[in-house]
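User: Here's a chain of 393 residues. Predict its fold as tokens.
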Amino acid sequence: MKKHVAHSHHGLGGIALRWLHSTATMCLSLAIFMALGTAALAQFDVETKLAATGARGFGVSAAISGNTAIVGAHQANTAIVESGAAYLFDATTGTELFTLTASDPGKRDDFGFSVGISGGVAIVGANRDETDAGFGAGSAYLYDADPTSPDFGKELFKLTASDASSIDFLGWSVAISGDTAILGAYKSSGDGGSKSGSAYLFDVTTGEELFKLTASDAAEGGEFGDSVGISGGVAIVGAIRNRSAYLFDVATGEELFKLSASDGVQLGRSVAISGNTAFVTGGSSAYLFTSSSPRSDLTNNGFVDFEDLTILLANWNKLGATPAEGNLVDADTTPVNFEDLTVLLADWTGPGPAGSPEAALGAEAVPEPSTLLLAVIAVLGVSVGGRRRRRAR
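Assistant: Prediction complete.
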């Protein structure tokens, strides 16, 4: 039986939690002040122009993570005419670091038409790549993008769909977050009919396909996969002809929500997601969708309680932890730390609404407050220092 902890702002339990929250907030504020000083007030007033000599199509796509930026040039003449390329840059200096090309380049593959980067891994789409499935089946490539790695710039995996067919255009859109990548194949045909579209989730560490995503209301010509995005445990896929965008659970591949504009605008041309906020464009407008469920609800049960705190503490200082593991602030570059703990405590709701079965269960399973506090201090006390930068695997 799962145990819940009743949340109360009264008694020792409330005092313990408020004390812990105040301490975490104080430490966090001090760390930010010491690290940034007056830099927090600085403006974005330094311009650095990135360019690659002779790279046709340079700038068709771009992404950034930490101090590394990637820019696609899908018509660049590299090993083969217009086979395409992508370029890695130092985002602090503008220095070109590496030119990425496919290990099996082809003419007009559109390599570089879409790009993404997360931590030490970059992804490059080649939607017109001719594979064993036929012309335009499409693909994407993963690369080591950690400038400190001895394998920097090395191709890690080539990603293709398990049910690929000609003119699917897999890799038309790509995105990556942590250990998961998502690729759109907006011209693929499935249960929804011709060009209903699809998207695929891949494990970045193995190159294996995890799930094929399709819309619950897939329709012919829907072009699901025209745009994709991912943040931690949630992926978003745009379907421009279906006038919608869809959210998916990365861990299960299940559709969570369908997003549509209240004014009927054709949504899905571009999408992005961060935490519990999704950003979708359509027509000449842009829309923000925000989940009412706190991002600290790690168990997805509708409230933030001791189960969520337990998950966060179990992953304390873990490099590469995902938002679902408690890395709520910056999963790409930092481990679970006081910043994440502060967010969780600020979202704290307790085990459920008064009178609910969850609250009743929690009321019967309240631990002795000092025991809870000592357990938290025991875990956190061993590493109260600053956050370490994530090392790419």
